[in-house]
């Protein structure tokens, strides 16, 4: 299976998971319905700009879209949810990031104590 087809299949699954159609992705991403259609049929490979817009619409890290589209190499093995956690962390205010780090440290310490 080509990278373009694999990306189109993945994107179709993401749309189905959200109950969206191509027009909804176009509306939320700011790309044209024609562009979405070309990406979905494998006629057009998404570049970085389209990938960023798709990521923003899906509310996932751009790196995930880039990797799925073959624009970045596969990520090193990380626990599931790591990229999403980093993405949401970056979107928080400085105060909220500090609070989240306190929580993460507390959870880590508690898990080490329980071992």
Tags for this entry?
single chain, 115 residues, mainly alpha, 434 Repressor (Amino-terminal Domain), 2 domains
Structural class: mainly alpha
CATH superfamily of the largest domain: lambda repressor-like DNA-binding domains
How many domains, as an integer? 2
Provide the helix percentage.
Answer: over 70%
Number of strands: 0
Number of helices: 7
String of helices and strands = HHHHHHH
Reported for the largest beta sheet, the result is: none
From the spread of the alpha carbons, the general shape counts as elongated
CATH topology of the largest domain: 434 Repressor (Amino-terminal Domain)
Unreliable spans: none
As a whole number of angstroms, the C-alpha radius of gyration is 17 Å
Question: Can you describe this structure in just a few lines?
Answer:
The protein has 115 residues and is mostly helical. The chain is built from 7 helices and no strands. It starts with a helix and ends with a helix.
């Amino acid at each position: 299976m080509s990278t373009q087809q694999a990306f189109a299949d993945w994107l179709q699954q993401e749309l189905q998971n959200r109950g969206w159609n191509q027009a909804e992705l176009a509306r939320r991403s700011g790309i044209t319905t024609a562009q979405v259609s070309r990406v979905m049929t494998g006629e057009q490979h998404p570049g970085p700009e389209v990938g960023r817009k798709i990521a923003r619409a899906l509310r996932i890290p751009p790196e995930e879209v880039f990797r799925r589209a073959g624009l970045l190499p596969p990520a090193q093995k990380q626990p599931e949810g790591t990229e999403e956690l980093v993405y949401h962390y970056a979107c928080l205010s400085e105060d909220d990031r500090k609070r989240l780090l306190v929580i993460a440290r507390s959870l880590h310490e508690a898990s080490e104590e329980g071992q």
